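Residues pack. Consider this:
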Amino acid sequence: MTKELLNQLSGFNLLYVEDEVGIQKNIHEILDCMFKNIYLANDGEQAYRIYEKEKPDLIITDIQMPKLNGIELTKRIRRTDSKVRIIITSAHTDLNYMLDAAELHLVKYIVKPITEAKLTEALHSFIESYEGAKVYNLTHSWIYDESKSLIRGPQEEFVLTKKENAFLKLLVIKKRLITYEEIENILWDDNTVMTQNALRLFIKNFRKKLPENTLKNVQGTGYRLVL
């Protein structure tokens, strides 16, 4: 697994559902250092309760489980949530299972045994599923979700103002220094002037929502991200 993939995964939360203790322990040991938080469930009912409470970014679930199987769990979640990413694992290659799974908008269907190669491929697919979804990895354990105007760190979550969201989007997409002139033209409307005090206050509040030391001021010119 590449360092880049590990860095990308580090900002996301995972729910892993597996009723076989040995498999759960082995896979958890592999996944443990990859995600910001990992929640474990032993059956579908427990998994659904955790899903409702924690709202994970990714769910990896076995099919055959007591109380509520993986297909039923996914169908229940899909009634209200079309966005959470789901990977199903199964010892079965039965066509009926696979047809059921195909209708549930899965990231991947992994046939057991779960190898590191299969897991890596599935996690790459998870990251790729965000292409075009406007979710960016800022630095280790920090992600920026443009569509939700949200920055999520290891222990914190910040909602961005409209102006902050526009500025961070500009910094992330341009990947270069953004000049004072650009900041004024893009973030300040035609009826207001960007005074030094207004910009200083804006930057002060914006920095509080970013990973430490990632916004650099180039004196007399503008700002850039250091990631």
Observations:
- The longest strand covers residues 85-90.
- Residues 100 and 143 are 32 Å apart (CA to CA).
- The chain is about 40% helix and 20% strand.
